[in-house]
């Protein structure tokens, strides 16, 4: 059924493809998958812990973790995550804090929230078994069209295309797609082309999909493709329109991005002996669901804060109004700590840390504000810059 759907989609897209593919490209379509699979047999990556795995759960976790995360990092964290949550049912049964603690340091924390939500959906809607239809997979939380295609191809041998950033670059270069790839019309053309290039045999889908990923990640890279070196001969060197027209480093074209906005905020680092005050961030905020230091609202950066704050001022900025501790007994005056710059995908944040030591922890009456023992910090998901800060201040002990 799925192959029939793909065939119908391919037929309907053929006319559109003919409008922009030169004759040489049309001929390449019939040989593309064979060339790529042959290349993979000689140069593809091997031995990755998620390869050659027909378990859709394992495929899904690896695909989500590999989004916007370097392979070297995933190589370290993926086995640990799978050991902690070996099945989709165990992931669904875990608390969000457990998932966030295991994900801490990987960034893009909406992925972790979506993983948990998706696991719950799979258990509740599909009795703990991932569907093999890409259309159904795409309806699950956090699974886009390309990830759905990868799961279907790897775990179920379904003829479904993928189109991540690496694949877009490969196709834009080989087939000379010169318009910015962010444009919807261009993206639609790329999806049509990706569908046309699929191997005819479903059994070849896992190898082909892995080969396409590997080729974009290791050979047809953004800044150092092999065609610009003498190390290897690209299997598409005589077909690649970007190579033949000397546009390899020009394609794919991207829109010029505006400069990322910069913001300031104040953060309260309150300590009481071996305890530190943490606040759980709202689920839809940046670092959503993680535990961080209480912080003020962000303001557009016009330079670093030059004036010092008093304790009550800082409480008013960082703590809920009803919880500002008027009678808090401090053991030292409020101290200006380091200023930390953190770069997000679309913004930059400058965090001014303020350090305060108090005689004893205060009961806040708020589940999102907790005093956490230094020995238990490893059980909490912390944003990477906050984790680094606490480590630098020797707050994390016992090998955490």
Automatic annotation (TrEMBL):
Q: Which cofactor does the UniProt annotation name?
A: [4Fe-4S] cluster
SMART domains, alphabetized: ENDO3c
Q: What class of enzyme is it?
A: hydrolase
- Give all residue intervals belonging to the HhH-GPD domain: 65-218
Described by its record, this protein's role is as follows: Adenine glycosylase active on G-A mispairs. MutY also corrects error-prone DNA synthesis past GO lesions which are due to the oxidatively damaged form of guanine: 7,8-dihydro-8-oxoguanine (8-oxo-dGTP).
Q: Which family does it belong to?
A: Belongs to the Nth/MutY family.
Tell me which PANTHER family the record gives: ADENINE DNA GLYCOSYLASE (PTHR42944:SF1)
Name used for this protein in its record = Adenine DNA glycosylase
Q: What is the lineage of its organism?
A: Bacteria, Pseudomonadati, Pseudomonadota, Betaproteobacteria, Burkholderiales
């Amino acid at each position: 059924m799925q192959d029939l759907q793909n065939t119908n989609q391919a037929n309907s897209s053929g006319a559109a493809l003919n409008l922009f593919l030169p004759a040489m490209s049309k001929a390449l379509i019939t040989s593309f998958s064979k060339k790529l699979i042959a290349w993979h047999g000689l140069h593809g990556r091997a031995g990755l812990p998620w390869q050659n795995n027909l378990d859709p759960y394992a495929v899904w976790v690896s695909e989500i973790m590999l989004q916007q995360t370097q392979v070297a990092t995933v190589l370290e964290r993926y086995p640990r995550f799978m050991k902690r949550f070996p099945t989709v049912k165990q992931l669904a049964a875990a608390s969000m804090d457990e998932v966030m603690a295991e994900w801490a340091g990987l960034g893009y924390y909406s992925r972790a929230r979506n993983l948990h939500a998706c696991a719950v959906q799979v258990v509740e809607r599909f009795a703990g078994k991932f569907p093999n239809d890409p259309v159904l997979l795409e309806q699950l939380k956090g699974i886009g069209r390309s990830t759905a295609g990868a799961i279907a191809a790897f775990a179920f041998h379904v003829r479904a295309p993928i189109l991540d950033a690496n694949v877009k670059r490969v196709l834009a270069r080989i087939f000379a797609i010169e318009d910015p790839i962010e444009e919807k019309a261009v993206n639609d053309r790329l999806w049509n082309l990706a569908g046309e290039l699929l191997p005819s045999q479903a059994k070849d889908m896992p190898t082909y999909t892995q080969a396409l990923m590997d080729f974009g990640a290791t050979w047809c890279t953004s800044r150092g493709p092999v065609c610009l070196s003498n190390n290897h001969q690209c299997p598409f060197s005589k077909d690649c329109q970007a190579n033949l027209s000397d546009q390899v480093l020009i394609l794919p074209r991207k829109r010029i991005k505006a400069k990322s906005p910069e913001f300031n905020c104040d953060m309260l680092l309150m300590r009481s002996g071996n305890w530190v005050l943490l606040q759980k961030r709202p689920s839809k905020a940046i670092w959503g669901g993680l535990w961080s230091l209480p912080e003020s609202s962000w303001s557009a950066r016009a330079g670093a804060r030059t004036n010092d704050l008093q304790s009550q001022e800082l409480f008013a900025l960082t703590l809920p109004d009803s919880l500002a501790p008027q009678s808090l007994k401090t053991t030292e005056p409020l101290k200006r700590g380091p200023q930390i710059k953190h770069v997000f995908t679309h913004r930059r944040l400058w965090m001014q840390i303020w350090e305060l030591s108090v005689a004893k922890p205060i009961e806040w009456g708020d589940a999102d504000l907790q005093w956490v023992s230094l020995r238990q910090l490893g059980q909490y998901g912390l944003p990477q810059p906050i984790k680094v800060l606490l480590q630098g201040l020797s707050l994390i002990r016992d090998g955490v």
